[in-house]
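User: As part of a screening pipeline, I want to sanity-check one entry by hand. Below is the sequence and the SMILES for pyridoxal-5'-phosphate. Please return the complex as structure tokens so I can compare it with the automated output.
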Amino acid sequence: MLNALGASDSVIYNLVLQEITRQQAGLVMIPSENYATLDILETLGTPLNNKYSEGYPRKRYYSGNLFIDEIEQLAIDRLKALFGFEHANVQPHSGSGANQAVFTALLEPGDKILSMDLNAGGHITHGNKFNFSGRYYNVFHYGVNRETELIDYDDLAEVAQKEKPKLIISGTTSYPRAIDFAKVTSIAHAAGALHLADISHIAGLIVADLHPSCVSADIVTSTTHKTLRGPRGAVILCKAEFAGKIDKAVFPGLQGGPMENVIAAKAVCFNNAKKPEFQTYQEQLVRNAKILEQVFRNNDVRLVSGGTDNHLLLLDVSSIGITGRQASDALEEVGIFCNKNVIPFETGTALDPSGLRIGTPALTSRGMKEQEMAQIGGWIVQILKAHESHQLKQRVVEQVRALAEHFPIYQEYSNG
Ligand SMILES: *Cc1c(COP(=O)(O)O)cnc(C)c1O
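Assistant: Here is the complex for your manual check:
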């Protein structure tokens, strides 16, 4: 593997090898990260990278797209079937770009959007003031209930009726519970709004029927590299009536040539998602999150909303007297990668918040199960409760390394 790269650029070659080693030697518990399967990585590295194919299948601005058309059409058809939507666009380069395309297709600058409060779990593209979404649109938020920390659908309905937004966005980055998409759709339609469900984090769970369906939404956006375990990128699904507007917004509205190597890898990902192994994988990652929930609960680490229904947990580490940054830095020192995160009604800052976000997709892809989760959860608790102890860190770093060695990520890359 990587022979040509080794010969042409030893600097990048060595950094790539070091990063592969880091991914192998550590425990990745950032809930938005995953290990794409080798068939995905192979597809990304093919000469499909070389082709220009602006436009859509059979409506291209370049010649030579005979096979590319077939590939992109397969990606579209597989995706539509997977989620039960009438139309799909597989070209968005990222989740942020997909959301931008939906806004471009359906809104005018200054229009009202209603989305989840960012401290409660909304994504920056749902109205952060430094993001295009917050700069160009008139943003209102709904949040979670202060006691239960669950989505407050009454609050959502109230703001929707009062503000009459054009678009209501559901979907989050750090919400550990199930989202009632059908309820959001009925609230949106009652207020004369469209419903965009951004399922980036939970797409895999929805495919596996471990999370309520998003099929009621008017438009769905999703990344393909999180629980779907595909290539970096995103997709848009919608009802037929929005097809033309959505396609025009992606190209020529926001993008030029699509990345057909990535689109081919998306097609492979959607095919994999129908296999029994994918179902087993999704069930295991939810079970793994439940084991971590138990460990944290037994050790009096406060969990936002009290637990998890999905692939992630949000720990309120202020409950043990440290900050999210201290927690994530201390865990990084022992090779456990999580991320600091804001929590609902946050009193800290985005760079030093009270929360720690932990997820199971990547470790489950390596084959880790209940036993390993109990072990890792225990190490996390120890580190959080003594985050300055060098002795403890020296011990845990060895245990982490030994465990990681038992679960290789890519045999093919192990000798460089
Ligand atoms: C990850 C994520 C995105 C953004 O995806 P990028 O590919 O990083 O741009 C958008 N929305 C939600 C809910 C996400 O979790």
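Points to compare against the pipeline: The domain at 283-410 is CATH 3.90.1150.10 (Aspartate Aminotransferase, domain 1). The chain has a mean pLDDT of 97.
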